[in-house]
Amino acid sequence: MEQPDRYSRQTIFQGIGPEGQRRLGEGCAVVVGCGALGTVVASALARAGVGHLRVIDRDFIEYHNLQRQLLYTESDIEENLPKAVAAERHLRAANSAIEVEGVVADFSPSNAERLVEGADVIVDGLDNFETRFLVNDVARKLGIPWVYGGAIGSSGMTATFLPRERPCFRCMVNRPPAGGTLTCDTAGVVNSAPWVVGSLEAAEAFKILLGTVPASRELVVFDLWQRSFQSLPLEGVVDVKCPACAGNYEFLEGTPRTRITSLCGQNAVQIWNLAAGPMRLSEIRERLSALGPVEGSEQMIRFPVGEQELVVFYDGRTIVRGTRDEVLAKALYAKYVGM
Ligand SMILES: [Zn+2]
Q1: Ligand 1 centroid to 173 CA: how many Å?
Q2: So what's the pLDDT on residue 180?
Q3: Which residue has the higher pLDDT, 253 or 175?
Q4: What distance in angstroms lies between residue 250's CA and the mean position of ligand 1's atoms?
Q5: Cα of 246 to ligand 1 centre, how many Å?
Q6: Would you say the CATH fold of 255-336 matches that of 8-249?
Q7: Whole-angstrom Cα distance, residue 2 to residue 257?
Q8: Cβ neighbour number for residue 74 with a 10 Å cutoff
């Protein structure tokens, strides 16, 4: 329902005004991933009146999400709702005057271009690097600005990437690491860290949709425990050999870097990170052992997660036992091994 004074506190803000509000109402934002970051970003965009909002997530809600994933409630878990469905429901309840579309999907090379169709800005709510490289490729290819954000422990970072400017995200980060990456599921997270990142991301998305304020050209890095905030200029990280900047979209159009196969006759899915090479098992083992018992040898380690078990091999393969669901296997891999 349209309420005449719904946006009054931002139309009297000089940086937005009535004309800016009209632009936000015509804008289309796509939030990829709806966990701690995505729920903050989507709430901010919906409540500010961004007219078209698409929220994409592959996961279900669990109790350990409620500590930081602001949109969700205990009753969403009791109803077994996927995050994208619960997010759509809560965002509509907060603002019925905008269009909200929750999409339950694994953002992948086969659907990425379709899922960002019509977007004026893409905002990162993801938990893994591989999918961020894919967002970077699709954003550059289709000419859509995107806002990167990540948080772990008590720290976070964010940067904005514009399609016709350098550096891009790939220039900044290079290749996904071979020892997996730290994730919120292995290193923990203080809830206010992703909330700060999500708020910074939302503000950048507003500026892009308004078109009147230049987007930030800095990487913002902070640590809430240390109370340190830094803005680092992005100009210094241009990679002259960056494939994405040269129009070679390897994560979108190239040979898949991750091969996922259901193992015939077994209740298991194999995930093979072809780009990573040999895994640094000792690093992964150290991270996981803080969470529970890890068994194994120099060639492989085994780690139980609920009803599933992850078996990580030295050569880069991981077998997720106890499921034939490739999307679930990929989600567990991203959370515990780290893409
Ligand atoms: Zn680049």
Answers
A1: 9
A2: 60
A3: 253
A4: 12
A5: 7
A6: no
A7: 47
A8: 10
Residue with more model confidence, 316 or 190? 190
**Residue linked to tokens 């390897």:** 250
What is the 181 CA–ligand 1 centroid distance (Å)? 21
Q: What is the whole-number distance in angstroms between the Cα of residue 315 and the centre of ligand 1?
A: 29
Residues 6+ apart with CB under 8 A from 229: 220, 221, 222
CATH class of 255-336: alpha beta
Q: Where are the domains of the chain?
A: 8-249, 255-336
pLDDT at position 315 is: 79
Domain 8-249 in CATH 2.60.40.2470: no
Determine the pLDDT at residue 91.
Answer: 98
Q: Ligand 1 mean position to 156 CA, how many Å?
A: 22
Distance 97 CA to ligand 1 centre (A): 38
- Which has more confidence, 293 or 39? 39
Expressed in angstroms and rounded, the spacing between residue 273 Cα and the centre of ligand 1 is 22
Q: H/E element holding 300?
A: strand 300-305
- The alpha-helical segments, DSSP class H, found in the chain are 8-11, 17-26, 36-47, 74-78, 83-94, 112-115, 129-142, 169-173, 184-187, 192-210, 250-253, 281-289, 326-336
Determine what percent of the chain is predicted with pLDDT higher than 90. 62
**Residue-wise burial string across 235-250, b where 16 or more C-beta atoms lie within 10 A, e elsewhere:** eebebeebbbbeeebb
Measured in Å, residue 239 CA sits from the centre of ligand 1 at 6
- Element of type H or E holding 305: strand 300-305
% pLDDT > 70, the chain: 96
Distance 161 CA to ligand 1 centre (A): 10
The pTM (predicted TM-score) of the whole model is 0.84
Distance 71 CA to ligand 1 centre (A): 34
Give counts: helices (H), strands (E), the chain.
13, 14
d(CA 140, ligand 1 centre) in Å:
9
Mean pLDDT of 270-289: 82
Report pLDDT digits (tens) over 290-339.
Answer: 888 888 877 788 899 989 999 888 878 888 999 988 888 988 988 888 76
